[in-house]
Amino acid sequence: EEIVAFPLYVEAIRFAFHEEGMIRTAVRALTLNIYHVGDIYVNKYIATTPHDNYFLNLVKFFRDRCISLNGLVSPTTESQGPESTSKILSAVDEIEDNLYYFSDVVSAGIPDVGTLITDSMLKILIFPMLLPSLRTEVSDVKKFSSVTSLYLLCCILRILKIKDLANTVAAALICSVESFLPNFEAKRLNGFKADHDEESHVDEESHADDEKLSETLDSSSMIISIPSLSTSSSVQHNCLHSASVLRDALISYITSGDDMQVVGSLSVLATFLQTKELDESMLDALGILPQRKQHKKLLLKALVGEDTGEEQLFASENCTSKDGGDGELNIYLQRLKVLDALIGLFCRTSISADALWDGGWLLRQLLPYSETEFNAHHLQSLKDSFTKRCNQLVEEQRGSWPDLLIQVLCDEWRKCKRAIEASSPRKEPKSILFPTKKSSSSDVMPAESSFAAGETMYERVKVFVLLHQLQVFSAGRSLPDQPPILPPAAFPEISRAKSAGLNTIGPKLSTELHLVDAVPCRIAFERGKERHFSFLAVSMGISGWILLVEEWPQKPNYGTVRVIAPLAGCNPKIDERHARWLHLRIRPSNLPLTETAKNAANLKLRSKSLVDGRWTLAFKDEASCRSALTMVQEEIDLQCKEVERRLKPLLSAEI
Asked: Where is each FPL domain found (predicted)?
């Protein structure tokens, strides 16, 4: 028996690309129910012409969504406002929904449909549009920005778990394209266009290609052959001795790309690494076969009596022929090139901490056990970069946020250890599309702002923690759960805090204090409402406060705490014209890291609230003003010295 007509299905797919999203969702739900029935006659009807054109049109529809996303991303990579961010997220959701639908269709197991979707995806989108856009050279052949292409490749490979698709994309990165692509795809991939395409635009080219594909693609003949790296010496030569422009482009983005390109390239490599459908020979040729799999492969070879001795150190299962020495050497060199790129990434100063953490995760995946593949140059580069980060952290010990420095260090140490030891990357692919630049709020807050200083401190700590952990890792040791920081010192018997009657908890509002070291002053928090206080600066360990105390008339030299502000970052300065005035910058007690570190667009909405307070204290004479200034400086010095003491083991050059 054969199905001659299936009106429900035919009518449903007519509305598959309706402008209303709910209608498209209903059509997809209906078609998936039909595909999963499992009837051989229904499957045959669905997979034969003209009904199989539905799947080709699905890929074209998906390609159009990708083009729309690229239009949103490309002009907004530098600065994304809330509106553009919302549009990008909406487009990303639609693209991922489409891919999950493709995945559900393929999982139904209808003969030839999986092949049809795979080959249509390759010939309509990946070969002519995504892969050429990875090239670092400026070319009018590029249809997408490199960032969009990197994101789409990650998404497609993560969601569409198809063996042929994953291996073909990997082969396109490592082999000469002529060995497995038709001529017109090969020309486009290498950066050239056919003569009749020279003056056409994206839409015209897409339309011409659609017509050509509609005529030539069918479910029974669409097979793209992946060259076997283990059987053909000529293919081995083409793959391992070719320019490998696309593979090298990924490495180039890591070593010299901007922040988004670095994250994108690392995400693509991480995606390949986690794609179970990808052959290990492809991972080896890409230079990202994990060390544990290399060791397992060498052990198996030794057990079956293949190559022995040190020749096995860098051998690859895709280069087992007797004359495959060049292949073995080139695979080793590619692996070394990836490692060189990652080490070089950790030495770059213009890349965000988040991007560097992604690189740290990839390095731990490739070399999970020991330092055996780090050469002297790698170790020296890591040490030099770590020394620079140590110097930056030394600056932060006397910066605007020393009181929070140890807390942030401990928090980020745990987060970094968890991130680089995780089984999968900590971020979704869509993070590629959003800038994570250092000082993302620089256009919102002035450079002298304590918030800008706090953001810088936060970035420096994250990078320092990563490099410290890489130093430990490169030495072949396991990472401790906590950084090596000394415990707090005992509460000193002689100090302004002790003289004022403070306990180890610190000052609280309405606390009674002894005003033995306080200096009388005046300040107006509202126009025309001047108030009299006693000014006192105190420190206890790594904490410190500026206190305004209201003296009791009935009990001289004692008073109640009315105002408390952080001591660190107050930047005391006597007014140039009025020597009795002391200016103080008042920063918040806690740094709003969630707003400053995550999204500059949200930060701009709150820019007015991220402003430091300013106090101007008036003293009775110049001597009193200088006395108050000296008191603040001395307490800040005590506070910073305690931070330095506790962090001394962490900043030691010997790890």
From this structure: 3-35
Closest Cα partner for 379 from 346, 355, 402, 423? 346
DSSP state of 128: I
Give SS3 for 249: helix
The neighbour count for residue 462, using CB atoms within 10 Å, is: 22
Q: CA angle, 469 as apex, 464 and 472 as ends, to 5°?
A: 130
Distance of CA 447 to the CA centre of its chain: 25
Phi/psi of residue 483, nearest 5 degrees: -70, 155
For residues 399 and 332, the answer to whether their CB atoms sit within 8 Å is no
572: left (phi over 0), alpha (psi -120 to 50) or beta: beta
**What HEC string does 52-118 produce?**
CHHHHHHHHHHHHHHHHHHHHHHHHCCCCCHHHHHHHHHHHHHHHHHHHHHHHHHHCCCCCHHHHHH
- The 3-state DSSP class for residue 581 equals strand
CA distances 390 to 79, 110, 266, 462, 513, Å, are 31, 59, 26, 12, 39
End-to-end CA separation in angstroms for the chain: 76
Beta bridge mates, 602? none
Residue 302: band (very low, low, confident or very high) from pLDDT cuts 50, 70, 90? low
Tell me the β-bridge partners of 549: 534, 561
Give the model's pLDDT for residue 554.
87
Is the bond leading into 492 cis (omega within 30 degrees of zero)?
A: no
CA dihedral (378, 379, 381, 382) positive or negative? positive
pTM: 0.84
Token pair 């990708």 in the structure block, residue: 66
Q: Residue 444 has which token pair?
A: 């919102």
- Residues near 101 by Cβ (< 8 Å), separated by ≥ 6? 28, 32, 58
The answer to whether 594 and 603 are in contact (CB under 8 A) is no
The DSSP-derived string for 517-570 is: S-EEEEEEEETTEEEEEEEEEEEETTEEEEEEEEEETTEEEEEEEEEEEESTT-
Rounded CA separation 477/480 (Å):
9
Answer whether 230's CB lies under 8 Å from 320's CB.
yes
588-646 pLDDT, tens per residue?
999 876 444 444 444 444 444 578 899 999 999 999 999 999 999 999 999 999 999 99
**Are 538 and 545 a contacting pair, CB within 8 Å?**
yes
The helix/strand count (H/E) of the chain reads as 24, 8
